[in-house]
Request: fold
Amino acid sequence: MKKILLCCSAGMSTSMLVKKMEQSAAQRGIECKIEAQSVSSFNEVIADFDVCLLGPQVRFQLEELGKIAAEHGKNIAAIPAQDYGMMKGDVVLEQALSLID
Reply:
């Protein structure tokens, strides 16, 4: 099972995107656990996930969080603003899957 973490400022705005990603994963027969969390909980939860994607509103923290992710052997990337804004769950799911080793 793939474990995908989405981080945004409060963990709220990403919940709709999580649902779209879960629908896409189900349609493709991919077992995924996808969670939206506040970026403030990143340090405590990153070890439990395979990959982390950041919402556009927190992308400025990518470098800082990337160092922590690397300590845990995890990949991290920012979700493109257009994919996030248009709630392209299939595209964001593909982005996450491509980052899982």
Remarks:
- The radius of gyration is 12 Å.
- The CA atoms of residues 9 and 38 lie 5 Å apart.
- The longest strand covers residues 2-8.
- The longest helix spans residues 15-28.
